[in-house]
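Each record in this resource describes a single protein on a pair of labelled lines. An example record follows, reproduced without changes.
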Amino acid sequence: MGAYILRRLLLVIPTLFGVMLINFALTQFVPGGPVEQVLARLEGEGDAIQNLAGTEGGGIQEEQAGAGYVGARGLPPEFLAKLEIQFGFSRIVCAEGFTGTPSLDAPECVKEAIPATERFLIMMGNYLTFDFGESYFRSISVVDLVLEKMPVSITLGLWSTLIAYLISIPLGIRKAVHDGSSFDTWTSGIIIAAYAIPGFLFAILLMVVFAGGSYFQWFPLRGLTSDGWETFPWYQKITDYLWHIVLPVTAQLISAFATLTLLTKNSFLDEIKKQYVMTARAKGLSEARVLYGHVFRNAMLIVIAGFPGLFLGVFFGSSLIIEFIFSLDGLGQLGYRAAVERDYPVIFGTLFAFGLIGLIVGIISDMMYVLVDPRIDFERRG
C-alpha cells in the first residue's frame, strides 16, 4: 500500500501542472481581461479605479483624483501601461547602468510585455510556495478572500453531507430489506420526484412557503446569522445559526439525498442475493445478525469509501444559484465574480488549491476502501 500511495502522490504533480496549464492556455483565448474590465468600469463611472490596489508613485487613484469623468476624454497611454504592469502583464526594463528607481517616467526605462509562458512559470513558482497573490479588484489576498467566504461553504457542504448520510443509509437499507413492498414503492416515488426537482426551483418553493412568501414566515430570508449575532449568548448564537441554515441546506440536500439512498439500496440488494448470505441464514443466524454482521460491511464499502469525494464535491462545489437565492456570499459567488471580472489570481489560486485538495482526497478515498475492506490491495492489482 505504501508504494501505491507514493506513486499516486508523485502523479499529483504532473496532473496538477496539466490542469493549470490547460486552464491558463484557455484564458489566453477568452476575449477581455482585467485591463479591459477596468476600462469598462471607467467608461461607466469615473471613481471605479478606487477599487484597485495602489501602484508606484502614489498609485493610480492619486493620478486620477479630481480628473472628473475619465471615459469621456479617453485614457492616457501612461495609465494603460501602469495597469498592465500592475496586473503582471508587463514589466519595467531599464538600460544598463541605471541606478534610480525603475519608473516609466525615467527616459532610460521602457515597458516590456511578459510572454505568456513566462507568466505561467512565474505563477506556478509562486503557487509551489502557496503564494497565491492578491485579488485584482479587492485589494485582499486570495487566501484571506477564500477564508472569508468559507463559512458558507462549510455550512452547505458539511451539513448537507452529514444529513444525507444520516437519512439515506437507514432509508436505503430498509428499502432493500423490503424490496417490492408498498413502503419501497412510495418512497421510491418520493425519491425520484426529489431527484427530478432542480435545486434552485426547490429553494424558491421553500422561500415562498416558509420564508415570508404567500404562506408562513417561519425562517429568515437571507444570510447565515441575524443582525447583532456577535452580541448574542452562546446558546442563542447556535440556535440562530441553525435557524438560518434550515432552508439553504434543505435545498442543497435534496439531490444528494436521492442519489445516496438509491445507491445504498442497490448495494444492499446486490449483497443480499449472494451465496454467503444464504449460507449465514442456513446456519440459523438472525436476520439482524446477517444484515448488520455480514451484509452491512460489504454493502457499505462503496458508500463509506466515497464519503471524502462526496463531501469535497458538495463542500467546494457550492451552488451559485442556492447562494444567490438565499443571499449567501460563499465560494460559488466568489468564483462567478472572479470569472466575470477576469480576476486571474482568484481564478487560478482557487483552482490550484482546490485541485490539489481534490487529488489528495482521491488518494484518501482509495485508503478508505482498504480500511473498510482489507481484502482490497491496490498495490497487488497495480
